[in-house]
Write a structure and sequence with these properties.
The protein has 103 residues and is an all-alpha fold. It contains 6 helices and no strands. Helix 2 crosses helix 3. The longest helix is centred in the last third of the chain and has 14 residues. The mean pLDDT is 94.
């Protein structure tokens, strides 16, 4: 496993899955027209990490939970993404099933 944060890779994957350019996502997040693309590029290259409020806005705009950005492997990321789309009742059901399976 790499010591590098999975955030840049996950951000790019979520952004491209939604069909946004770097500038397009930056603009949707309220970034300045002249810097949106450069800022998003720096996040995706791992040069900078956004503050939590920006990270939360990114997650909301991309339809993923914040935790998705930090999953260590692809299966965990997919599970986190799908789990985040469920209702609270569905989440409780999934948790019960997983607890039973983990016994």
């Amino acid at each position: 496993m790499s010591d590098q944060s999975p955030f840049p890779r996950r951000l790019k994957a979520a952004r491209t899955a939604k069909g946004f350019s770097q500038q397009g996502l930056g603009l949707r997040l309220g970034m300045d027209d002249n810097t949106a693309s450069a800022r998003m590029n720096q996040y995706e290259r791992g040069k900078h990490t956004p503050d939590y409020q920006t990270l939360k806005r990114m997650a909301d705009e991309l339809g993923v939970p914040v935790s998705y950005f930090f999953c260590e492997d692809e299966l965990s990321a997919e599970l986190t993404h799908l789990f985040g789309r469920l209702t609270d009742g569905q989440k409780r059901t999934v948790i019960a099933v997983i607890k039973e399976m983990a016994k």
